Structure formats: structure tokens, C-alpha cells
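C-alpha cells in:
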């Protein structure tokens, strides 16, 4: 699912006394339904402290309507959390970014103003500017900040406050902040956003994303590995081995690993090899998609190493293991020399190395032969 479709699932609209006031992000948090928005979007209702909840209604893009049961806010940071009553089953979860955004971070939002008939996608352009500890500024296309009547900025975009701002490329929906204002009549094409970490101070149960460096889904890989180990590793490997297109590859892996390891270790090691193949494939696909320089460096290293002869004779298990690990170490060195300059960490390179070693085991490039074999 694309990030645009994910954002559609959590976009919401705030109505006070049945009048559209602004945007919001709606999500489930444990067993509760929450909305985060800008405080000034609901301030006209909150200012009348006696029984104001009934004045506020939340509607998501599916048209479902939610009522409010409680509220927390910080007027100084212009943020508010609403606790809702309604159907929780159709809602998704989000994660709150708790670090400091790097200037080059790509962001995306979905907004709706009073004058818009349909919500519009808003992308950050150029660099993100960290204004202070509570807010940041994004640069956007100037075209989106005007309307057909010639108005600009806040006058043209009334109602976009409270819209969520997310990391543009990520497996999860990582909320970095919410839109709160448009300065300078919109002529500079800048939008001010309150940091998502302000919500973490208001509600401790919110899930925080602690890594301030976007790591190309590496945390997703780690989570996936843990789930596979604990719950579905065996069934995942069985499914891969029994797939008709993988049977020949699985037989090659079994044959070669039986040379390297005794029987009581075979299943465990085979699981690691197949898991390395699948996880490496995921990381390879992510890097190909988001890092243009990756393909050239990776292809160069892969081609250079594939020219080596990886079929050798082994007279003992110890000799086979030594040769196997030497090939793996040599390939890592070749791969690291090509991929470190384009920004890959050693952890990423190890995962790609494991992927290719597993691929070669499956495809007979890396093979162990007995001296009696023909």
C-alpha cells in the first residue's frame, strides 16, 4: 500500500457546531480511539469548559462520525489530543517521531481547506527547517497555497491546520508533526508544523519512533525477524521450500549445508540461510527503490565477484567450512568497498552479503566437491 493510501486511512476532519474547522489524524492506540490536531482548531469549543464535548464531531474519509469523550491540549504548542467514541475496527495505528528531523528529510501531508472540494497531497520541497524545540517549517509548492479567487496563504487555505505530516518513504506511518499555520501570507511557500514529540508529552501511551535517522526500513526488518523467530519461522521456511519454483534451490542448499554441518545443526543453519535470502531480498528492493547510486555500486561488486571460481574440492568438513567463510569474508570486503561510499552501513552490507551467499548456495555457484566426484 502506498503512503498516500495509508494517510487516507488516518485523515480526519474536525467539526465544531457542525461547521468544518480543520484537519486531524485519527488512529487507534491500544484499545482507544484518538485524534491529534491543532489546538486552535477546537479552541472555540474548548474555551467554554462546561460540557463542550458534544460540540465537536470528527469525521474520517470513509464518512464515519465519532464523538468526543475527553481532551488534552497544550495551547502554547498549539496541539490537542481528543479521545473518541466510535468504531475502532476500521482504524489503523501510527508512530510518533520523537527525534530531530534532518534538513533533507522528505515529508508528505494530505490537507483539506474550506475551499477545497477534495483533499490534496502536499509534499515538502528543498530543506526542512527546525524552528525551535516545538515546531519545524517545511517548504512546499507555492501553487497549492492559493485558490481560484486569487487569495494566498491562510486566507486561501483555511482549514488545513491539524493535518498530519508524515515521513514520505517508510513501511510505517511515522507522524513527524501537524500543520499549525502559514506565515507571511503564503508568499514564501512555507508551512509551520508542531513537532510530534509534543503529543508524547501529553499522552505517555503513544508509540514513539526513537531513531532520528531514517534507516531505509532496517527497523522493519528487525521486527520482521523477531516475529519470524517467535511465531512463523518454521512455516515460512516450509512454505518457501515447498514452492515448486524453489524445490531445486532448496535441494542445493540442503546438499551443500550437509557438507558444512552435521545433522543436528542442519535445520537451524538452513533456517538462517533461507531467512537471510528473504530479508536480503527485502533490503535489496528497498535500496533499489530509494537510493539511485546503490544499483551501480552493487552491480559492480556482484559482477566482479561472480567472475571468481567458487567451485572447489574439500576433503573434510573443516576444510569446507574454512573455504566457505573465506569466500563470505572476501565477498563482504568487495561489497563494502562498493557500497560504503553510497551510504550503506556495515549491518546493511552484511545482510546483502548473506543474501548473495544464500543465492549462490541455491544456484550452485558456490559448491563443495569431493575429490571422488566427477
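Residues out:
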Amino acid at each position: 500500500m502506498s503512503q498516500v493510501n495509508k494517510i487516507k486511512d488516518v485523515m480526519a476532519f474536525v467539526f465544531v457546531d457542525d461547521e468544518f474547522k480543520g484537519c486531524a489524524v485519527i488512529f487507534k492506540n491500544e484499545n482507544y480511539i484518538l485524534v491529534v490536531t491543532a489546538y486552535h482548531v477546537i479552541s472555540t469549543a474548548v474555551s467554554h469548559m462546561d460540557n463542550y464535548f458534544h460540540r465537536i464531531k470528527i469525521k474520517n474519509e470513509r464518512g464515519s462520525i465519532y464523538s468526543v469523550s475527553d481532551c488534552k491540549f497544550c495551547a502554547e504548542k498549539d496541539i490537542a489530543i481528543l479521545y473518541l467514541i466510535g468504531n475502532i475496527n476500521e482504524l489503523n495505528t501510527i508512530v510518533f517521531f520523537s527525534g530531530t528531523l534532518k534538513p533533507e528529510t522528505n515529508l508528505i501531508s494530505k490537507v483539506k481547506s474550506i475551499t477545497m472540494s477534495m483533499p490534496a497531497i502536499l509534499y515538502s520541497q528543498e530543506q526542512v527547517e527546525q524552528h525551535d524545540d516545538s515546531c519545524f517549517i517545511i517548504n512546499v509548492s507555492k501553487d497549492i497555497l492559493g485558490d481560484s479567487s486569487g487569495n494566498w496563504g491562510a486566507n486561501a487555505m483555511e482549514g488545513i491546520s491539524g493535518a498530519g505530516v508524515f515521513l514520505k518513504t517508510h513501511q510505517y506511518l511515522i507522524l513527524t508533526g501537524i500543520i499549525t499555520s502559514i506565515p507571511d501570507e503564503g508568499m514564501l511557500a512555507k508551512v509551520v508544523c508542531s513537532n510530534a514529540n509534543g503529543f508524547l508529552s501529553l499522552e505517555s501511551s503513544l508509540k514513539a519512533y526513537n531513531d532520528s535517522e531514517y534507516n531505509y526500513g532496517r527497523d522493519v526488518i528487525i521486527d520482521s525477524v523477531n516475529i519470524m523467530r517467535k511465531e512463523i519461522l518454521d512455516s515460512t521456511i516450509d512454505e518457501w521450500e515447498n514452492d515448486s519454483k524453489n524445490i531445486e534451490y532448496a535441494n542445493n542448499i540442503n546438499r551443500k549445508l550437509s557438507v558444512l554441518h552435521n545433522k543436528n545443526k542442519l535445520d537451524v543453519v538452513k533456517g538462517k540461510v533461507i531467512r537471510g535470502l528473504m530479508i536480503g531480498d527485502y533490503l535489496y528492493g528497498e535500496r533499489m527503490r530509494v537510493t539511485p547510486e546503490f544499483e551501480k555500486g552493487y552491480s559492480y561488486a556482484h559482477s566482479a565477484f561472480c567472475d571468481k571460481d567458487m567451485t572447489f574440492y574439500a576433503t573434510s568438513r573443516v576444510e569446507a567450512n574454512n573455504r566457505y567463510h573465506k569466500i563470505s569474508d572476501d565477498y563482504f570486503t568487495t561489497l563494502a568497498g562498493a557500497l560504503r561510499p553510497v551510504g550503506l552501513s556495515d549491518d546493511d552490507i552484511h545482510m546483502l552479503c548473506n543474501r548473495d551467499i544464500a543465492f549462490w548456495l541455491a544456484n550452485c555457484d558456490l559448491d563443495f566437491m569431493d575429490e571422488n566426484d566427477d
